[in-house]
Each structure stands twice: as structure tokens, then as C-alpha cells.
Amino acid sequence: MPLSTRDYQRERRNSRLAAGALAYLTEGFDLFDTDDTSLNRTPLNNVCNSPRPSNVTLTNNLISFIEGQTAHKSIPTPKTELFGNYRWKMSHYFYIHLMTYIFNGLFGGLIIFLIENYSSSPNKYMVVTYLDSWFTTVSTICSCGLTTIDFAQLSRASQLVMMGFAFISGFAMSTLPALIIKAQTHKTTQGTNVDDDNEKCDLGNDDECEASNTRWDHNLPSHVRAELARLPTPVKLRYRAYIMCIVLILGLYFIIYTTGFIAIGTWLQTHSSPQYLMQNNITLSPWYISGMLTLFSFNQNGLTPFSTSLTRYADDVFLNIVLVLVMPFLPLLSFLH
């Protein structure tokens, strides 16, 4: 196992202590006459008057010798990967999650502001300032539903950008990076405990865990011990739990979005007249409306492609039932977390 610089510093400190103890013992033995086999004590005045190195001098000489020997040692540089000693903690994800929301709001508002004012086709229905676009973006990604501009009056590009930020900033989707990071650290890190708040017997105390298990292993029948030996370790169980959560969240996302998109799109295409799909004297695609309603209703953003929201569909029982069934799945995913 390669030694680090801290190991050599610890070794040098221990050498200093050993040198001091050796010098103390040497000074004590100098009080005896070692020429005589009976170790007769020499006169005290001869000891005091005899020229001999002091304790400080002897200690300094020993320390200088030891430091010289240690300094000439070539300290091997351990080969470590980037972030090899990094230990993931959930508190780190909190700060990453917070900064992601802040930057998503800033950059999302900036993109919409540039599209509405400096693109090839500026917005001709209203004036969009950066403060309004930033506030609407932050309100959307935080699922507040508060707006200072008419979202339906924005260009198609701005609406698609808002849908993208709403998707990646959703409550369930934004928690996937934490699960992926913890699953990856469990998979690639050997002998490192990344869940220091989950187990009393962590990976650094494998010997204690094995010793505690062997106390009752000998008292069990052989077939029971064989079955226990085949059980997965706590680390494997946690890794499988993370993978199952990731698969479950992605599976629910796919099922909910696909079902809502197909159901609403098919219904609007077959049962809605063109005037119900009209916005700014333009007939919108029923599939575009379906995708936006499914996304914003699931993430509870409160946005629609119409300036009058969904008042035109107040009598459409099927559409309202589908939207009501889609909306409660977000709290369900938060419960799974």
C-alpha cells in the first residue's frame, strides 16, 4: 500500500519522540561507570565536570540524523484518479440543487428575453423585459404558476425553452442526479463508505462486523449459514435500491407522459373544432397542445398555450378528467423519494 506524505510526517513525529526518550535514557546511564562490570556509581563531581554532550545536543543530533534519513527517502506519489478521495454527501447535492435552480432561472430568463427581443421575428404582441422573463422562468421551474407576462403570447421557441426548463427542473427529475451519483459511488468505490449515516457497521469496520457475525454463526445449522452467506451485503442492497428508484421514476415518467400525451392529443384531434385550438389567429396543433398540457399539468406549473387558460374547455369532461389524473402523480413521486 503506497504511503502518503501525511504518513511520513507521522513517522517523523514518532521518531522525534523516540529520539527524546533515547536521549533521556542515555543521560541516565552516563551517571554510571560502564568501565566497571559492577556498574559502580561514579562520583557526582566527576560526572558534572566530565565533558559530555548535553541532553539537548544529543537529541538534536539524533533528530537531525533521523530527518536526514527520512528526507532522502523517495516518497512515492500514489496514483489516484480525479476526485478519487471525494466522498459524496447529500448536503453537497443540496447546494448543487439550489445553484441549479438559481442558474436555470437566470439563463432561462436570458434566453427568452433574447428570443423575444433580438431574434429574427421579435414579439409583436407585447414588450418582454428581462425582469418579466426571469420572474416567469423562476416561477415555472419552482411550480408556482405566477406570471407577469402572457405565456401564450410568447413565440413558439420561447415556449419550447420554457417547457425544457420545466422538464429538467421538475421535482422528480431534478432528484435523479443524486440517486445516480450515489449509485455510481457504490458501484465504482471499493472499500469506501459513502453512506456514513446509514449503517452502524460501515465498510471501514468490516473486521468488527465479521467478528460480531461469527458469534452466532457457529450456533446455527449448516443449511441456515449457507442461506445467510448467499444474502446480499448492505452495500449491495443500497445499490439495488438506488437503481430501482431510478428505474421506477423513469418508468413512471415515461408511462405518465406517454399516456397523457396520446390521450389528450387523440381527443383534441378527434373532438375539438378549429376554434378551440386557436391562439393569435393561428390554429395550434393538437399534439403541441397535448404535450404542453401534459408537461405543465404533471409538473404543476399552471401554464397553457391559451391566453384564456383552459376556460374554453370548461365543459370538456374527458379532458378535465385526464388532467386531474395526471396532476397527482408528482406528489406520488415525491413520496417515493
Span from first to last CA?
40 Å
Low-confidence stretches: 33-42, 189-208
The percentage helix is 55-70%
SS-based structural class? mainly alpha
What proportion of the residues form beta strands (DSSP E)? under 5%
The tally of strands reads 2
Explain this structure.
- Mean pLDDT is 76; it is low at 33-42 and 189-208.
- The chain is elongated.
- It contains 14 helices and 2 strands; from the N terminus they run H-H-H-H-H-H-H-H-H-H-H-E-E-H-H-H.
- Strand 1 and strand 2 (282-283) form a beta hairpin.
- It has a domain at 5-71.
- Helix content is 62%, strand content 1%.
- The two termini are 40 Å apart.
- The chain has a two-stranded antiparallel ribbon with strand order 1-2.
- By secondary structure, the chain is mainly alpha-helical.
- Helix 4 runs antiparallel to helix 5 and helix 4 packs antiparallel against helix 6.
